[in-house]
Amino acid sequence: MIKKTSITLAGLALLLSQNLYAAPLRVAADPVPHAEILAYVKKIDPKLDLSIVQMSGGGINPNELLASGDVDANYFQHLPYLKDQEKALGKKFAVVAAVHIEPLGIYSHKYKSLAELPVGATIAVPDNASNLSRALRLLQDKGVLKLNATGDSTSTLLTQADIIDNTKKIKIIPVDSPQIPRSLDDVDAAVINGNYALEAGLVPARDALGLESAKNNPYANLLVTRPELVNDPRIQELAKDLTSPQVAEFIRKTYQGSVIPVAGPSHD
């Protein structure tokens, strides 16, 4: 009896190994550019049955979906945000690949240069800790204000309390990230994440008054899963696809510098 059971289990293992992609791989992603990039992966790798769950900034947290098992992976966030989420949710996630960078940008419907910003200008920035810190560093890099900035940009999170020189008396207004493009008419300028800028019809490489440098940028967008799924063949296949030269070329041609591919995978 034991021998027959062993054979049955071995046969099942062989069957599974021959049909690795029988179950769809459910991946939560922002519509632009993440879901668009995943749609391209579906086209070039049809044997990987991808089920793309698009997130539209409606209050659903892709990391909560991942932690609860409602999706198998997500693709929308950078490492500082992920670390902040792990603390907030009390969960541990696994980075499988670093795929692309979306440079953070400063935009305005009222002014054509940062030099035109008046005294007392209002600037909307993301309200979550990691992107608020990132936005403040960008404003400093572009000469809008000065920070008491020390340490690595991904491990040292800055707040408005770190502003030490604000000659123009700029008013920083934290806003929920997906809502910032809609607030452009109500403020003098806004710091917007690349994906939300693209969704709003902005072209970061063309429209931003100031754009984050891609060189040595620590904010690459990641493919993330649960620790127990890291070696799942479907996850590994998707990571291989997302970091392939073919997908990198698609990103370069499609987004023309507004989204920049990362050279290769990153296992953190």
UniProtKB/TrEMBL annotation:
Its main location: membrane. Residues 1-22 form the signal peptide. SUPFAM superfamilies: Periplasmic binding protein-like II. It is a lipid-anchor. It is found in: Membrane. Keywords: Lipoprotein, Membrane, Palmitate, Signal. InterPro entries: Lipoprotein_NlpA (IPR004872). It comes from the Bacteria. Pfam families: Lipoprotein_9. Belongs to the nlpA lipoprotein family. This is Lipoprotein.
